[in-house]
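fyi for ur records
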Amino acid sequence: MRLDDHTVVVTAAGRDFGRALAIRLADLGAQVILSARTLKAAERTRDEIHDRGNPRVHAFACDLTDPASITHFVQQVAKTTDHIDVLVNNGARWLQGEDLLTVSDADIIDTLASGATGTILATKNFLPLLLRSDKPDIITMISTAGLAGHSRSNAHDAFYSAKNAQAGFTEILSKRLRPQGVRVISLYPPDFNNADPLAPDWHTTPRGPTDPLTSQSLIECILFAIGQPRDCFIKSFHFEEPV
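which gave:
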């Protein structure tokens, strides 16, 4: 699959899964617009993509906890392109702790703001650019923590709350945007093995039935979904956790 005719925005692409996804999309020819909380982190991923031969990559700072930062990011993107084809809502702060009292009020606010409010505001502000595409897709990386009744993660209650907010938002958005041709696709992975796409273990990570889910497989799910004909609306990917 080639993505030479796709312009993709990836939030929180300075490290971990967002970085891996941005690199793979660029390897397939997409124009990639990436953000990170700091410009330095975004530029680091941009430079790695440049070094692999794709000059069509742009880096911006975007703090998903700050509405003004989100607005400024979208304004900068609008100066770069007249439309986007895919928005990947990848940004959400991880917060660990099974005791509600173990973290500060500021940590809770930051976690909810980045995962819940940040996702909603980024989607709202990028929607006009998506509606100018003939193949608009919104991808949101949620988590098994966003599933009703899930309790296997050691994430803090605030992280669970942010992920459930994302799940509720994408559920209703999928129905309301379908008449406009926008596909809203959510992924609910458990903890997964996040290999570095520029390291040898990217090609050697075990991917058998008893192994943890890998970032490679998650990326392949995303590529599969956006590669389907426009009558195929895949609403979500759910994954079994290893026994």
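The longest helix spans residues 105-130. thats all i got for now
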